[in-house]
Structure formats: C-alpha cells, structure tokens
Automatic annotation (TrEMBL):
GO CC, one annotated term: plasma membrane
Subcellular localization(s) per the UniProt record: Cell inner membrane
Single GO molecular function: transmembrane transporter activity
UniProt record, GO biological process: C4-dicarboxylate transport
Protein name: TRAP transporter small permease protein
Family recorded in the similarity comment: Belongs to the TRAP transporter small permease family.
C-alpha cells in the first residue's frame, strides 16, 4: 500500500502531462485554422465552416485537460499570505482543507459534465451549426478532463494522509506545495537568468 499510491500518482501525473500536451496541440491547430480562415476571408472572400465551433470545443477541452497538470505542478494560484504566518501544523491543516474543497468542486464538475454528455447522447444532440457535430463527443472529452482532475486530487489526498500517518513531514510539505519565501525568490531569479 505504501508504494501503490505514489506509483498511481506518478502514472496519473504522466497521463496529465500527456493530456496537457494534447491540449497544447489543440490550441496550435486552432491557431492554424483561424489563420487559414482569416486568409481565406480576406483574399478569396470564402470561409471555413466550423472554425469558431471547433475553437470553442478546443478551448473548453484544453482547459479541462490542463487542470490536473496544473494541480500536480502547483501552477494554480495560491494565496498563502495567511498560511505562511500561521504555525506549520495549522497552515498544513488549512492547505489540506483547501485541497479537500477543491476535490469537492472537481468532483461536482466531473459529475455534472458526465451527466451533460449522457444527456446529449440520450437526446442525440447535435450542434446548431451547418456542421451538425454530435455534441456528445466534445462533451465526453471535456468530462474526461474534469474526471482526471478529480482523480488527481483524490490520489494526492491519499498520498497526503499516507504521509501524515507515517510522520514524514518533509514529504507532506512537498505534497502540499510548501515553499519558503527564499524558494520563491530563488525560482524567480532562476527564471530571469534562463
């Protein structure tokens, strides 16, 4: 059990990294499509049908696929002005509470997005554009991103509780994304040099 959770978390982190790269390619393809669309409109007075429709799908999917990656990389916005001034135990308790609440929100997003995709499949919903895209496909990918995010949070919480039970304070600090103000300054300085 001691190795299962970290191994599962590493696997999910790799999957979220791959999903994030896939999302990046969606955005690149969208950019190319928009450039072609603008060129065709300006030069030939013609239009590619559906670039805006698929652009909306690409942005929604890219966002949901990127949530788990941002969570693992601690790239989300954290307001830790208060937690840095609290005793370490209380600050860590608040961080764990925040992750639990984030998990609740991610779970609700995942659940509702799955329900939405199921409803679209049940009613055989199509987009109201000339392309008539079956809405269930982009919604299912969108829902998968939210579910990946939820599973990432659950695994992280299990890993956190495992570290709490084993008394591994350093590992707990790493899992919670704790850093000292010196770490933040050093990271900013290093980024400016590179």
């Amino acid at each position: 059990m001691k190795r299962i959770i970290p191994t599962a978390e590493r696997g999910l982190k790799a999957l979220s990294h791959t999903a994030c790269i896939l999302g990046g390619w969606f955005v690149i393809l969208l950019s190319v499509g928009i450039c072609i669309e603008v060129f065709l409109r300006k030069v030939f007075n013609e239009s590619l049908q559906g670039v805006d429709e698929y652009g909306g799908y690409a942005l929604a999917i890219t966002a949901s696929l990127g949530f788990a990656y941002c969570f693992y990389e601690h790239a989300h916005i954290r307001i830790d002005l208060l937690t840095r001034r609290l005793p370490r135990t209380l600050g860590r308790a608040l961080s764990i509470f925040a992750i639990v609440m984030l998990g609740v929100v991610a779970g609700l997003l995942g659940l509702q997005s799955i329900r939405l995709a199921q409803e679209s499949q049940l009613f055989m919903a199509f987009s109201n554009t000339p392309l008539r895209t079956p809405i269930v496909y982009p919604q299912a990918i969108w829902a998968a991103g939210f579910c990946l995010f939820f599973v990432a949070i659950v695994l992280r919480l299990l890993h956190i509780f495992q570290s709490l039970l084993s008394g591994d304070g350093d590992r707990l600090g790493d899992l919670l994304g704790e850093s000292t103000s010196d770490d933040g300054v050093e990271g900013s300085t290093r980024q400016g040099v590179e």
